[in-house]
Amino acid sequence: MSALFLGIDVGTSSTKGVLVRADGEIVATATRAHELDLPRPGWAEHDADQIWWNDFSAIARTLTARTAEPVTAVGVSGIGPVLLPTDGRDRPLRPAILYGIDTRAGQEIAELDAELGADAIAERAGAPLTSQAVGPKLRWLRRHEPETWRRTRRVHMANSYLVSRLTGAYVLDHHSASQAVPLYDSRKQDWADGWATAIAEHIELPRLAWPAETAGLVTAAAAAETGIPAGTPVTAGTIDAWTEALSVGVRRPGDVMLMYGTTMFIIATLDTRRVSPPLWGTVGTFPGTFSLAAGMATSGAVADWVRRLTGEPDFDGLAAAARLSPPGANGLLMLPYFAGERSPLYDPDARGLLAGLTLRHSRGDIYRAALEATAYGVRHNLESFTEAGAPPRRLVAVGGGTTGGLWTQIVSDVLQQPQSLCASSVGASLGAAYLAALTAGADVDIDDWNPVVDACEPDPALAATYDEGYALYRRLYHDTADVAHALAARQV
Asked: Which among 50, 290, 55, 78 is positioned nearest to 172, based on CA atoms?
């Protein structure tokens, strides 16, 4: 009987799980869709019990019921950085405030920059204060929900909350902590003396561990809810984008993951710490590694908006129509800032724009313009990586958006760089299962679990077309930003 590893990841719009053997054989997978709660413009939330724990438990029960073999170890990952305030018994006090797509704490970002110094924050934490940061959201909670703040004793991210429900342990991994800017000192790789206690005040901060370390063992109560045997080791886990990168072998210096999902997320692996204000600098998944990361506020979300607007039941019809539209979308240009923009603009009041419309344009042109807009956004971010001294040497594409090939081809054509594609698109849950295997001491290699099987090569003949389109894309934002900001102020 071979070892069996369970990986479950809680994403923005679905939770996914996988059972994997030590040789990389995928025994079973399961998925549960869930909704993102958007109670106000600029707010994004999840109910930790109804979504995170209920999804995890249901998927764990489904997968463990498909085999008579016991699970050897459990890996968890989830969206982040997020802020879930709980009481001293880890009971949620409000829905979790999500990562950079939640832009409510703009005032608090400005205040902390002024108090601590923007340069000092970037140098100590490794990243600037943006809508991605946890510290400003803690201050927002204190200001706007004082009763919740008074009752808050602990704070969780998705993976640490799952660890708590499974094991009773209050543990957060170093990587996730490094995104709790400015509470973590990425130079010392520990909570930031002075800053953490000043911002978190009476809140107990979790014990720190590395993602592949054992956080605890499954309790009898959790075993009854999940079907996972009591006593099974559970990893500390980490943020889902990093387990997604791990799932496709992005772990060596120069490797860069492009994650095609609801948002586009980009991670570069480094062997030295780098600080670049347009990007997020973090510690890596493993000791001795570091990352630079970037994230667009929307990507697949814009594509889905076009699908819903045109009444298409799925993306196949839109993709077929977009293939009939030439590169440049017959003179259409979109800004994909439908939920503001994260890196490298950090402009929560940026807004989407479709320029060049005529009565001759079709749904295929509009859909192609949306895909090209996300490709231009990727190019903008990758230029920031190069300027930071971390030029991408190898691009690996992953995520649901790689299906069908049109989106990845447009991105390669805009970048004029190839992208590697791996055998499995299971994603972050596979990376979580791999962490579980490492936790259990298994001799495994992710490149054996999920080898590269294909590449998306750029068309050199399109370089000039997309260079021109990219220049217009960059110009369009600057030329229309004042109008976008004025309109944003009217959206409540």
From this structure: 78
Q: How many CB atoms lie within 10 A of CB 71?
A: 23
Q: What's the longest Cα–Cα distance across the chain?
A: 65
CB 427 within 8 A of CB 19: no
pTM of the full predicted structure? 0.89
Q: Which amino acid is at 471?
A: A
Residue 193, amino acid: D
For position 463, what pLDDT does the model report? Answer: 98
Could you read off the pLDDT of 253-289 as tens digits, one per residue?
999 999 998 889 999 999 899 999 899 999 999 999 9
Burial tier of 327 (Cβ tally within 10 Å: 0-12, 13-18, 19+): middle
> Which is nearest to 303 in space by CA: 294, 316, 284?
316
Distance from C-alpha of 75 to C-alpha of 18, rounded to nearest angstrom = 10
The CATH number corresponding to 4-241 among 3.40.50.1860, 3.30.2130.10, 3.30.420.40, 3.40.50.10730 equals 3.30.420.40
Classify domain 249-426+459-492 at the CATH class level. Answer: alpha beta
Angle at 66 between CA 225 and CA 445, to 5 degrees: 95
Beta-carbon contacts of 104 under 8 Å, excluding residues fewer than 6 positions away, are: 40, 42, 43, 97, 137, 140
The CA angle 284-286-288, to the nearest 5 degrees, is 80
Instruction: Tell me the mean pLDDT in the region 363-380.
Output: 98
Average model confidence (pLDDT) across the chain: 96
Say if residue 1's pLDDT is above 80: no
- Domain limits, the chain: 4-241, 249-426+459-492
Are the beta carbons of 55 and 162 closer than 8 angstroms? Answer: no
